[in-house]
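Lay summary. Proteins are chains of building blocks that fold into shapes, and those shapes determine what they do. In this project we predict the shape from the chain. Here is one chain we studied, written as its sequence of building blocks.
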Amino acid sequence: MEEIKGKSVLILGYGQEGKSTHKYLREKHPDKIIGIADFQEVKDCLDSTATKIHTGSNYLSFIAEYDVIVRSPGITLLTPEIQAAINQGKQVTSATNIFLSQGRGTIIGITGTKGKSTTSTLIFNILSKHYADVKLAGNIGKPALDYLADSNENTIFVLELSSYQLFDLKSSPHISVLLNIVPEHLDYHGGFENYIAAKENILRYQTEKDFIIANPNHSTVLLLLAKTAAKKIYFSPEKTAHYHYNSYIEDGYIVTCKDGIKQQVISIKDIPLIGAANLENILAATTVGTILDVPLTYIAEAIREFKPLRHRLEFVGEYKGIKFYDDSIATIPQATINAIAALEKVETLIAGGHDRGLDFAELGTYIINKSIKTLILFPETGNKIWEAVCKASPHKRPQKYDVTSMEEAIKIVYQTASVGTVCLFSPASPRTRWLFNTFDERGDLFKEYLIKYG
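And here is the predicted shape, written in a compact code that computers can read:
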């Protein structure tokens, strides 16, 4: 980062990515005074002699003292202190921007409201079958900057990118994968338009030498595809006459068509992941593999061997004759609809969480149409989900239980669920902040208590 020479630098937020940024900058600039600002106490700083630490409730006020601010993803660009810094001409950047400006090799960026982690991991597994130096980084795995020192022109980076990381991106990956876009993180971005604009950054700076891989049958995605100069490569479960698809489903098989040659990759029956959403993730990953010339036998092998990621429509087990699925990652209504659609005999749904102002009308109708018998709801969105259910049907409704602990929820499941049915934990909302620290924690507690009482 030549542009920071002679300038003061503040790392804003000292989580995993902040620590990685600190390590990277310290290696590049061993004598530079670097500031760290975080609400929490900084206990494991790399060094203390050349670092200024600012903590506490007023940590954002120290932005004014620095020339360059490296923002961690958890801190929105819309924070008033950051906006003031931008208006004053200060440079506000991120670890992702630093990585993309310094990175070597081939960079593949993956984003979408849902499916990023599964798709990124599957791409990594596919490419690792054929290439010697593949790194999985970004919003999953290690921070990307941690890999730079050991990378070269032959390295392939598979980079999962959240909307938080894309918000102020100044360059785009060579190969970008855009899975889907539906409303999410509206409080962080200040509205759906800003959220879409953040996602657009994955292709905004691409040129005709780059590639964008996407399903054009998603309306918002299609609008963004019209704005890029990159070569467009399409995938979709349903092949239509409007586009030439690289990967699609035909006669029960994943099929690829490259250079006019159509080939079967794998039978749908041999795929270990369930649900239509996962089929799209697999098609996207298959497309990446084909354009990077991975043999189809390796692609099929990677798909066949893939195990569902934790908390992503994960089958936990069968206890007292009830099958339990953990879909704690479902932070939007559409994700829960997809999860219900992927399973049979969902009798019990556990849902609800932090309120980001999303609309639950479609989920309410779907719950009624699928004849779910028991609804166990957490605050804050539990009330909204129930209101949507009531509007969908004045009479035929599930039995509703309001809970404030996972232990309470699981006890109700065992008291009410029928043998041979499915209990799905798919919250349709982010975690309730005063109940769970992370989505992982609420998923882990779901597993812990169903095993304890099962």
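What the prediction tells us: The chain has a mean pLDDT of 95.
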